[in-house]
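Figure caption, in words: inputs first, then the predicted bound structure.
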Amino acid sequence: MARTLVKTDAIVLRTMRMGETSKLATLFTEHHGKLKVTAKGARRPKSKFAGSLEVSWQVHIACPVRDDRDLHNLTEAETVRARPRLLADLTRLSYAAAACEIVDRLSLDHEPNRRLYLCLTGVLGGIEEVASEQLEALFWYFQLRVAEALGYRPELANCANCGTLLPAEAAWFSPGLGGGVCRDCGRQDAAEQDGQGAPDYLRARKISADSLRLLVLLQGLRTYSREAIPVAPPLLRDEVRALLRSFLEYHGGTNGRLRSLEFLDAVTH
Ligand SMILES: [Zn+2]
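Bound structure (zinc ion present):
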């Protein structure tokens, strides 16, 4: 099997202790997708990896990678961007951890996706710099972009099932059908799911006109800028959180719920 020396920037998605002194880390790299690596001796104070493999940090790595292996032996990691602001702020840290978990759970090993990488680095930078009232809408923007980068952009303008223009006042949302749907398609989908005993969170449901409008606005932002991110009205929060989460879980095939989003719910309520 081919062995390639990969040198690339990466974001640390997750770390775990391994043995007495080492670490296991999941990285999302700029050019080679997700990689799981072992960093031998990383927890020794004088290790060459000391202080670089922290969740959400950007690192430059060197790592020999074999396509037929799941775990690779990291040889170098140098910090490109630490995130001191996150360490001092539990709310921001929770958003960053949730962004990393989403990318971890929705991506496959060795599958390059530079768009997803840029989306993640962009949101992590944003989480450090936006005003705290903007964090929630920034995170929704990120989830919409992730869906797009993975090839399942939610439909929000026309019914995802029959194509009619969505009237904001009477729209439904169905994770399974692909986003916003008209009332008729939504009701029919909900009835079918009832018959199949689908879990509640995956069922088609009504979406409020304000939530739909805000999602359309966020989806329409071409690139992230601090000024462009609105403040999400707190009243919409539970609704939008639930529907974005169920959309990603349905299409990402996460085999279960995204846990860090529950933590985020707990921290930010
Ligand atoms: Zn329809």
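The domain at 1-82 is CATH 2.40.50.140 (OB fold (Dihydrolipoamide Acetyltransferase, E2P)).
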